[in-house]
């Protein structure tokens, strides 16, 4: 089953396809390098909000149509007069409910999120890829934070994500100098999970998706939550959180299956329950 969420063709669309227990989301505006209009962001948020409460889903896959992943937010499409500065306070009112909400959902949803990146991942598109759990890129892809180069400061989590992923010096290189980073360097730095040959991107992504979608979904979601909680907590606080997560995961059918498989010396057959 698939659906296409869009307004006018010029605003682009977010194409959603249910593939068994994997939700496949495609940014579909290839003529504009899949740059995101307000309507695309709103559609994407709606899709992820629905996915977060769908107990039958076990993984989310995000990709872009055509030769690029996402060139960021489209200021031309989202501003009636791109030559004028936004009205005072407009960004403070809008962005928390658009780009920021999108990044938060990708980062915190208790489903594993895999991004496949071709071509450009810039601005909001770059941060979308960085917020995913596993980003796999073709080795000719490029990651870019162009905010300062355009005369304004970063948004959509760039100043929070980058230092945690690659450290302060490389974060400054990308944010203050506006350096473009190849997929190969991004993987070497730990900015993304893997860089692969362009011809291998689909198979590499499917391998990770298959492993995640066949795993213990509740335990994966709780582990993801615990990892991110630990980024701003003490060791003692993190271990306390782990205890609550453990209490929940031990009550799942997948926990019982994991123990049975261990006793019977066979691979587990997790059902995501």
Automatic annotation (TrEMBL):
GO molecular function: catalytic activity
Gene3D superfamilies from the UniProt entry: 2-enoyl-CoA Hydratase, Chain A, domain 1, Lyase 2-enoyl-coa Hydratase, Chain A, domain 2
Superkingdom to which the source organism belongs: Bacteria
Pfam families: ECH_1
Classification via InterPro entries: ClpP/crotonase-like_dom_sf (IPR029045), Enoyl-CoA_hydra/iso (IPR001753), Enoyl-CoA_hydra_C (IPR014748)
Family: Belongs to the enoyl-CoA hydratase/isomerase family.
Name of the protein: Enoyl-CoA hydratase
Provenance organism: Mycobacterium heckeshornense
